[in-house]
# Entry
Amino acid sequence: MIDIVIKNYFPNATSYNVKPFGNGHINDTYKVEFENPSSTYLLQRINTSVFKNPEIIIENHLRLQNEFSKNNHSLAIAQLMPDNNGKYLYIDNSGGAWRLTTFFKDSYSIEVVDENWQAYQSGVGYGWFVKESQFLNTSDFQEPIKDFHRLTFRLNQLDEAITNNIAGRLKSVEPIVRFFKNMEKSLVQIERLIDKGDLPLRIVHNDTKLNNILFRNNTVVAVIDLDTAGPGSIINDYGDALRTSANNAAEDEKKLEKVSFNLNAFRAFSTGYIQQVKTVLTEKEKIYLYRAPVFMTYIMGIRFLADYLNGDIYYKTAYSEHNLDRCKVQKKLIESMESHEDISKRIILECLKAN
# Structure
């Protein structure tokens, strides 16, 4: 099948190498290398069980691509490539949805921050994305996944998973369920501010994991994985980025004693991010930035928990307790974040005041 897809983009290609690439949870990604002429691309089969209307992803990406191409930047996003018929989305005979993008040679991503420059450069990258998107009209973009970061929607999913207990796992995780349920009222208040417009909708990345930043040497060169890019709150982007870049452990770390909120990484990321978006932020956004890491870590925690209760139907898992381990990491990280909340507020204020 992959050969057929590649021929759709490169009908005259005769010599190339294809191999799986990356460790994404959702889509199937392949690196395609051509020998003559020498060139490399990323080919992806979009998971249409998750992205039911892949056309939305393509349309949103092209709008971003067109906007970002207006100026010369030191950073970049991947460019969608048209197929032999000039289309940016290819549907194979079995209904599979494919796209081809440019590949950033000699670049790499990371899973855990080991040095502060990595967090700082990640902040620069994600802040740059929001700054460059500031003049786009949110009404021109559709949500690739409806209610993707809507807390009340995710809470409803968790409640359904608890009620149905499809996989029969509820009894073993009741203390974890209580932890998350006890926090919901305070965090729903942030969603209400977004609904009222006190925290404005923007075009944001919406999936600011650390591994969606590409580095070359010690500098950020690209922001990748734009599947969920579209309308959202800066609370989503800033919070989710810190969920990964300021976590001392991996997202699925089994040894929970390794999981803690890294204040040095938090400061470094915030410095890079706020440098980029300081002139864009509203006063309300500045006030609530400190709560963003807990807000997004909470959302991811209940998503992992609901998927575990449902029998692991959404996220790719490598073993039976994988989603539960991911959930436990989010819980431990929230506890660490909340214990450092006063320090976090001071760091954000310092970043906002810096020249």
Summary: The longest strand covers residues 39-46.
